[in-house]
Amino acid sequence: MNSYFFILGRNPALSFSEIISVLKKNSVPFTIKSLSREALIISTENTLSVGEYVNILGGTVKAGEVFSEINKEKEGINWEKNLTPELLLKSCVSGKVGKVHFGTSIYNQTTEDKYVAQYNREQGRVNIQIKKILKQNQISSGFVQSKERILPTATILYNKLLSNGFEFSVFVSEGKVLIGKTLSIQDFNAFSFRDMNRPFRDKKSGIIPPKLARIMINLSGKDSQSTILDPFCGSGTIPLEANLLGFRNILASDNSQKAVSDTQANLEWAKIHVLGFKGEYMLQVLKADVETLMSTYKPGSIDVIVTEPYLGPTIFNKPTKESVETLFKELSSLYQRALLGFSKILKPGGVVVMVFPSFLQTDGHQLIDTVNLLEKFGFEKKNSIPQNYANLFSSEITKRGTVIYGGELDIVHREIVVFQKKD
Ligand SMILES: C[S@@+](CC[C@H](N)C(=O)[O-])C[C@H]1O[C@@H](n2cnc3c(N)ncnc32)[C@H](O)[C@@H]1O
């Protein structure tokens, strides 16, 4: 049995459901060994190419293999006893030449924060034990001093830990401790390059972060042979990420000529500037209102729609519940027209991953009525988080099982809804 860990991004609920969706799509049999808001650890009989998964996922910041499991004693972890030279040299140092640079991250796999202070002490102890073993074996080493118990990916990158050493990862749960090493980190520079450097970004109509676009595509569970459409394409974030994920048939449309031109220009730019972008794949960008989807695309021709529609005008102050209700009434009519079109152009079993607006009020998220909307047009909602894990992610999951994306300071939050056309 192999065991792998995935370190979850800033929205752990989305990161978790994305990983589950991608593993299922790739028919990987797995069981969940440990899950917290910080990390998912799975067991599988398959050998996973962890780097390939990190390249696909938008919401995973690091991933690696777990190579040992130890029991936790009352007074903490006895590193002298449990971290032996055999274990360390075989798992982390084999094949390394010259001075070894390493760092340690300690993850909290419990639901309580009371151990966190202890973990911070643990980090120092682990580093000293590793250094001692390396010295005894005539290996010169240096470790990354860190105030944080979880090393940021930038620290790993800039200290070249993966090429010149290792990141030692410790996962502490109630009775046991899992230890492993990081094999791959997210290419955060590439995400921010695509986000910030593309020639056209329409801040006024809103831009979806590339990582979220990628998560949404992955949540669809559809493979890259599928025909994918974004009918509210804006400046083309979702089509660009779909291309990088290997989708060969990408359709995009928008009712604004500016958005169509921006998307076309951004995709042309990506052909030259974005590593891994496949200029030879089909990318069709059209000017079309969602009202005309049925005449723009053949009935039953689309496998998957991933989209962020118009979410309302830009507002700078928190709106009252009444004004949100008024906005929702206006938006409902746009969404009804969109969903009617989706129901006609999608194949049976076709999937939609769509953003809806949400506003955080004192008594929770104020959401648009998608339940009746989906029912009316023959869709059923798919839950992306298994029910037994919902409590862990209660701050991101709504009562109806959808996930909210947004920070405390954002006025409009995004509700991510996955739904499927009934056969
Ligand atoms: C929030 S933006 C999409 C942003 C996009 N996800 C991105 O990252 O650039 C919504 C888009 O919906 C388009 N739109 C609004 N109403 C529309 C309609 N009735 N039919 C088609 N597109 C529409 C707007 O022109 C705008 O580009």
UniProtKB/TrEMBL annotation:
Keyword tRNA processing in annotation: yes
Span of the signal peptide: none
Keywords annotated in UniProt: Cytoplasm, Methyltransferase, Transferase, tRNA processing
CDD domains: AdoMet_MTases
Record InterPro entries: RlmKL-like_Mtase, RlmKL-like_Mtase_CS, SAM-dependent_MTases_sf
Chief location: cytoplasm
Entry's Gene Ontology cellular component terms: cytoplasm
SUPFAM superfamilies the record matches: S-adenosyl-L-methionine-dependent methyltransferases
A GO MF term: tRNA (guanine) methyltransferase activity
Domain Ribosomal RNA large subunit methyltransferase K/L-like methyltransferase: 203-339
GO biological process terms held by the UniProt record: tRNA methylation
Compartments, as annotated in UniProt: Cytoplasm
Pfam family, one: UPF0020
PROSITE patterns linked: UPF0020
Name of this chain's protein: Ribosomal RNA large subunit methyltransferase K/L-like methyltransferase domain-containing protein
